[in-house]
């Protein structure tokens, strides 16, 4: 099978634990792109901190960002598709987080807001620096002109485990998912990596069986199961591996390189 659209998760998949793309992986991705395959990133990050990786690899095309809530064109930065949330729907979650002392941020496609930038704890500030992003102070809703696409809660893994248990008891009208050991995301109920990948494939005239996806976490399951070939990293939780068609090496062992070599360059 010749794969025409290849979707790569970023953290824990394309990047190693030092938040870098290895030179070997860059060269393999370039070789695959030269065969005519379209390579995109499909990530929980926003466009501003995912597009630079496409530019680093010399790629244009698209990034599916915010776990499928917004898709951006790399060269023009245009948002070509998004799933928005009503701001009022976030009120109970904001109240919960403030009462429990859970850090949260609110995302439009290109901007991120927190209660107080100056009040960020060092561990939170360091997290944003690692993800190459800078939040702003949350203004009145009427001052935010872009659509709200994602609400993220951040904390120690055991704390986020408890938050997930708490919120699982609520009657949710939003899509709630674990996007990392330290994160819970809330989005429009239709927003997911799999749905956004489907929308992009249809836009590009590419059949489902011509799509290959590689990921490593629970937020990747929908794209792994949508794709004609879904590949999980060896550093994935067992549930993610079970949802995939096969497992490649870990993100620190060149798993993306190995998978692309096997399925696109053999």
From TrEMBL:
The keyword Phosphoprotein does not apply. InterPro entries: Cof, HAD-like_sf, HAD_sf. GO terms for cellular component: cytosol. Pfam families: Hydrolase_3. GO terms for molecular function: magnesium ion binding; phosphatase activity. Keywords: Hydrolase. PANTHER family: HAD SUPERFAMILY HYDROLASE-LIKE, TYPE 3, PHOSPHOSERINE PHOSPHATASE. This is Hydrolase. It comes from Paenibacillus crassostreae. The lineage of its organism: Bacteria, Bacillati, Bacillota, Bacilli, Bacillales.
């Amino acid at each position: 099978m010749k794969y025409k659209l290849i979707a790569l998760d970023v953290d824990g998949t394309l990047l190693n634990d030092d938040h870098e793309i290895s030179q070997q992986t860059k060269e393999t991705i370039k070789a695959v792109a030269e065969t005519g395959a379209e390579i995109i990133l499909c990530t929980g990050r926003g466009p501003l901190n995912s597009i630079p990786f496409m530019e680093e690899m010399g790629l244009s095309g698209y990034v599916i960002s915010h776990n499928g809530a917004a898709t951006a064109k790399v060269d023009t930065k245009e948002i070509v598709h998004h799933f928005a949330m009503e701001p009022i729907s976030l009120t109970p979650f904001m109240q919960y987080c403030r009462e429990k002392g859970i850090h949260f941020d609110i995302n439009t496609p290109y901007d991120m807001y927190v209660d107080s930038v100056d009040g960020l704890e060092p561990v939170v500030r360091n997290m944003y620096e690692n993800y190459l992003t800078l939040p702003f102070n949350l203004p009145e809703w009427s001052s935010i002109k872009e659509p709200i696409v994602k609400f993220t809660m951040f904390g120690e893994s055991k704390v986020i485990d408890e938050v997930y248990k708490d919120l699982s008891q609520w009657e949710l009208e939003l899509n709630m998912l674990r996007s990392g050991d330290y994160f819970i995301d809330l989005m429009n109920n239709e927003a997911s990596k799999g749905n956004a990948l489907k929308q992009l494939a249809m836009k590009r005239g590419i059949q489902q069986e011509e799509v290959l996806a590689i990921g490593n976490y629970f937020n990747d399951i929908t794209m792994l199961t949508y794709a004609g070939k879904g590949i999980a990293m060896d550093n994935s939780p067992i549930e993610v591996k079970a949802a995939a068609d096969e497992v490649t090496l870990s993100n620190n062992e060149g798993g993306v390189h190995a998978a692309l070599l096997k399925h696109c360059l053999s």
